[in-house]
Amino acid sequence: MKLRQWGVGVAAFVLAMGGLTGGQRSNELLAEEFTYVLQEGQPGFHVEDVAISVDPRLQKHNLGGMWSLDIWQDNGVALIRFDLSSIPPTARVKSAILELLSYSVGFSQTDIRRSWPVHVYECNHEWKEGTGLNTSAIQDGATIRTSDGTQPWPNGQVTASAGELLATTVHRGGKTRWYKWRLKPEIVEEWISGERPNRGLMVWGKRPGKAVSFVSSQSSTVVNRPILRVTIQGPADVVRQYKVRVAADVKAAKRLMVAERYKKFRKREPTNVGLTGEAVRIGDIEWTVVAVQNMGNTLKSSNEFIDDLKTNGKFVWVEVRVENKGKDLRTLVAPPILDGAGRGFVSSSEDTFHVPEDKNLFLLKNLNPNIPFNAVLIYEVPNDSSQISLIVGDLDLFDAGEGAIDLGL
Asked: Do 81 and 46 form a contact (C-beta atoms < 8 A)?
């Protein structure tokens, strides 16, 4: 694996050390590591995958919309492609690990107990994920016959596009568990640099097979979707720059997701969006979510004579700092929240004795100019509520717009 150029600053660093003539200097140059965790649904990353079924009943079915990747049929394969554009093209890859969650194994006990080598190859032909299901013959993506719904696979079969073998892992037993494949880092490095086209991976368990289903990128549970962990290494200062860049990219992607959710349910563009800890200004009012906590189903009382509050859902505790940046008095009222299902909730009116007295909004609060006020708001939401945003405005009768702040829940 050759060492890639790391930029002007690193070139100066190399010259100062007298070049890369010794192993010790090379080790000093590659002084720090950073791991990218690529998974569909995580901000900034995108994954495509599709199972290719050899079941005669599904020959015209694209399965790109399925939440499983089944490779149980003889010569049935799964195709997976991770978007690597978030990784700098000059990065040197130390390791690349594919992780898939096996959640179903069958059919006979003999099959289940069989130790089965599952191979991962480089795919050498372009393909399209599609959106199809096993319930309808949609051909907008790869099938057993075509790579994209129209063009046939080379030599008439998908497995003819299997390229270099990148890794093999033995599937054992029938328990739900994660499996890992340590891919050849030099291949992934060339995908990242653009020296080699990234047509993705082909997961192929050859005969005699068993019925193995992995979770796909379409699963509603983000943490169960396919993962690619790419560890890069390089000079400490350059790797630190990567970390800063990734953090900024993730934040930008999260803000975009907040804005998209707002537009979907409020049917208009938000004036501003932000994340917990960031100041979001709407008109003359600046909002900053200071702290967020999932309190579970019990809200403890701060008064010994008042009972704890109970719910069949969960309580969400939000502390928000509000400042009037204008010149006129405003009246602070508790803003609502909106979850990822489009459900709106208002602050509980029963929490008077369950929040600090100096941060209580039981009564309306006058918000004088340039005097910040920290308020604690309690929301009662269903247990399945997630992707929650605080919906904030300018507290003016003449509305200057509305924005959303992601609460990280």
From this structure: no
Angle at CA of residue 320, ends 253 and 394, nearest 5°: 80
Give the tens place of pLDDT for each residue, 189-211: 999 999 999 999 999 988 777 88
Helix-then-strand count for the chain, H and E: 5, 22
What is the pLDDT, as a whole number, of residue 295? 87
What CA–CA distances, in Å, run from 88 to 191, 226, 239, 392?
11, 22, 10, 37
258-406 CATH fold:
Immunoglobulin-like (2.60.40)
Please report, as a single letter, which amino acid is at residue 325: K
CATH 2.60.40.1240 domain range(s) in the chain:
258-406
Cβ count near 256 (within 10 Å): 13
Mark residue 145 as left, alpha or beta (left: phi above 0; alpha: psi -120 to 50; beta: remaining).
alpha
Q: Write the pLDDT tens digit of every residue in 81-138.
A: 999 998 888 889 999 999 999 999 988 888 888 899 999 999 999 999 999 999 988 8
pTM score, whole prediction? 0.65
| pLDDT range class, residue 358, cuts 50, 70, 90 | low
Contacts of 23 (CB under 8 A, 6+ apart): none
Give the number of other Cβ atoms within 10 Å of residue 149's Cβ: 19
Residue 292 CB partners (closer than 8 Å, separation 6+): 276, 316, 317, 318, 319, 407, 408, 409
Q: What span, in angstroms and rounded, lies between the C-alpha atoms of 229 and 359?
A: 43
Rounded CA separation 99/27 (Å) = 29
Is 70 exceeded by the pLDDT of residue 26? no
